[in-house]
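2024-03-11 09:14:02 DEBUG pipeline.ingest accepted 1 chain
2024-03-11 09:14:02 DEBUG pipeline.ingest length=220
2024-03-11 09:14:03 DEBUG pipeline.predict start
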Amino acid sequence: MAAKQLLKYPFVRVTLTLLVSLLLRFIYLSSRVQRVIPHVAEPYMAGAKQAVFCFWHGNMIMQPFQTPKGRKMAVLISRHRDGEVISSVMRWLGIGTVHGSTGKRGAGAMRELFATCDAGSNIAITPDGPRGPVYQAQHGAALLARKTGLPLIPIAFAASRGKRFSSWDHFFLPYPFTRLCYVVGEPIFAADTDTDDAISTTLRERMMACMEHAQREMAA
């Protein structure tokens, strides 16, 4: 029976996602972790202030371990089978989920995201998800920033050893007992005069800078 067919069964899905969450915890706890956080981003990473955290789709797997303490986090996940699996893994790791997209048909998801923000939670979003183009920030994050008034926080990680998959998003999985480096960018505030294009361009530039910085740290 194909793996996708097996995932239709709740017991299989629950067991698999629990094992994945345990593997990710093992990778993180067995690794030496470095963090590069600018002073202006520290209140958001400490949970003292609320924000929208942004990371590339292929760079999401280790991001739950940087969730700010003392403030709930909800991540936007697409409505498809892979999204359901990711949602289950996130729940095992203590992360809430909002299902949908920020595209033309994502009005319901946006309303839920706004409600989540109003309740004081942080939001996490992959601006190039769920299907790309890779490393291109769509307008959903810009819309969230304008409507909520919350800053966008770019964040990326890199590892000294891991597996790069041949998927559209260049998905990366670190190996255990590696070095991990998280790099956080400066907050991006959406001024009333900023267009979605301008905000998205700035977001992409800072997200790429974070990823390249993390990769340089691991190459050193």
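2024-03-11 09:14:41 DEBUG pipeline.report The chain has seven helices and nine strands.
2024-03-11 09:14:41 DEBUG pipeline.predict end
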